[in-house]
Amino acid sequence: MGRASKREEIAQAAFQQFHARGFNATGINDITRAAGVPKGSFYNHFSSKGDSALEALIRYAATLRFDMLTAQDRPPLERLRAHFEFLSKDTVENGFVRGCMVGNFGAEVADHNEEIRAAVKRGFDQWGAQIRQVLVEAQEAGDLDGGLDAGVTALFILSAWEGTLIAARADKSAAPVEAFFRTVFDVILG
To answer: What predicted TM-score, i.e. pTM, was given to this entire model?
Structure first.
């Protein structure tokens, strides 16, 4: 009987290590130690650290609760706010560390690894498209100014969120998060 695959343990450990430490500060030894497997096991399942980072991005996206944006259980702007409240809760509860893995990889690796850069871009494009759709729904419901460019506003909100996470980590406080909510929801979308 063959040995059980350790791919799941390695992939999950890579996700956790990359999210906690970032791409550059995470080595394959860190991943295999966290997974409790020998280093050689890593290469049975991933061709490189970059390959495991691509898997980690997929796993990270699954934690972002995009379903909150598409669920039709409440008005569009309430869904958008609930999505960002969920994300901010994670940031605050984790002591203003980690941030957004997509944004972190974009800042750390995008200039040096084309596959990761493309994955980061796809992630932001998909997220932005979902935000845009919520804004369009809010316009159709009469809850948001129809003259507002939903695509540009979605890009701004996403960019503002990523900047908020960087500022909150640097400041080690919720002040940037509070400023994000006040500005986006009370001023821009208010």
So the answer is: 0.90
